[in-house]
Design a protein that fits this description.
The protein is α+β, with helices and mostly antiparallel strands and 183 residues long. Helices cover 37% and strands 32% of the residues. Strand 5 and strand 6 form a beta hairpin.
């Protein structure tokens, strides 16, 4: 909706036009993306350093440089964050379209060759600090005819359900990690 600040579930006209060009059928639903937690934490640290320099006064060239570079990093990350959140993955009856900023990628269900799940665990001094789940989807690109890989990670809301849906629609089983909660 224009002017309300809430993202709409209907795809943008460029997404619908791209799906029509690729013959992906009728629009079904949107899967939202969320920003990565790591980028937000780094930006928060940079912002704290910049604010510290601003309050205490950047007395030399290093201080002014840190303030300038820090504000540029935070501003550019904010722009990328808004572009990523405004996009998403749009499911159609014959495939999907993934958008983020100006990037638009479409894949038909019939082009999908394999799906593989993987889990990465992070540790700090041998203590578990977190994990990330990702699924790699291999498909044949229409333009080049070569095998391409698309990665779905935890920035997609409900990545597990999304993967099950894509697997069911494309009739391609998920290999590797199928349950992200297993060890």
């Amino acid at each position: 909706m224009v002017g309300t600040g809430k993202p709409t579930e209907t795809p943008a006209s460029r997404v619908l036009a791209h799906a029509a060009r690729e013959n992906l059928g009728e629009f079904e639903r949107r899967v939202r993306r969320r920003p990565g937690l790591g980028g937000a934490a780094v930006c928060l640290v940079i912002l704290v350093v910049v604010v510290n320099f601003l309050f205490n006064g950047p007395e030399n060239a290093w201080g002014r440089g840190v303030v300038t570079v820090g504000l540029l990093i935070v501003t550019s990350w904010g722009y990328v964050w808004f572009q990523r959140v405004r996009g998403g993955l749009y499911l159609f009856s014959e495939g999907f379209v993934d958008t983020a900023g100006r990037r638009v990628v479409s894949v038909a269900w019939s082009e999908i060759r394999s799906m593989e799940g993987e889990k990465t665990q992070f540790a700090i001094n041998s203590l578990p600090a977190g994990s990330a789940v990702a699924y790699e989807l291999a498909f044949t690109a229409r333009v080049t005819g070569r095998e391409a890989v698309w990665r779905f990670n935890s920035t997609y809301v409900g990545v597990r359900e999304l993967t099950r849906h894509i697997s069911r629609r494309s009739s391609v089983p998920v290999t590797g990690l199928t349950d992200p909660y297993q060890l």
